[in-house]
Amino acid sequence: MKQKVVNNSVFGLMEYDFQWEKTEKISIFKKEYDITISAEAYSEENISKEQEESYLKFKENEKFYIETIENKLKEYINENLEDLATYWVDARKIINTSDLTKVVEPKSILFQQDGSIIFLAECEWDIENGIAVKLYPEVEVGPQDIFI
């Protein structure tokens, strides 16, 4: 399949590779990362209005969403430490936001067709699935496979 490019009025330049994607620099965990911004789409369908609206919402409230990700991940790890230790040899409480850089690697922010916003990352305790923080419409944390 030929790769397709679109210049969306909200997302900007996006390439299609099973979904619409681009890379943005985002500061999280007191560090800057190249994060893939993805808009879920099947067979090169267009980016939905809901995705555009949720992307605008994310950009307008980016600081709030980044803080939500940091706080929810810290809370999730600390509350589930005993369970996570089963798969995570060096399991330990997270004290500072910057400690998250040692156990979580941000990968992408997915804008689903219904407008849901999901932050996806690799993590020390679930190499296969990774961790996700659903940011909108409600906040939830769990393995990626329950969200995508």
Gist?
This protein is α+β, with helices and mostly antiparallel strands and 148 residues long. It is built from 3 helices and 8 strands, in the order E-E-E-E-H-H-H-E-E-E-E.
Structural account:
- By secondary structure, this protein is α+β, with helices and mostly antiparallel strands.
- The protein has helices at 49-60, 62-79, 81-84; strands at 4-8, 12-16, 19-28, 31-40, 104-111, 117-123, 131-136, 140-143.
- The longest helix has 18 residues, at 62-79.
- The model has no long low-confidence stretch (mean pLDDT 95).
Biggest sheet features: 8 strands, mixed
- SS elements, strand count: 8
* Class by SSE composition: alpha+beta
Sketch the topology as an H/E string, one letter per element. EEEEHHHEEEE
Distance between the termini: 23 Å
Strand order across the largest sheet: 1-2-3-4-5-6-7-8
The rough form would be described as elongated
Low-confidence stretches: none
Share in helix:
10-25%
Provide keyphrases for this structure.
148 residues; alpha+beta; eight-stranded mixed beta sheet; 3 helices; 23% helix
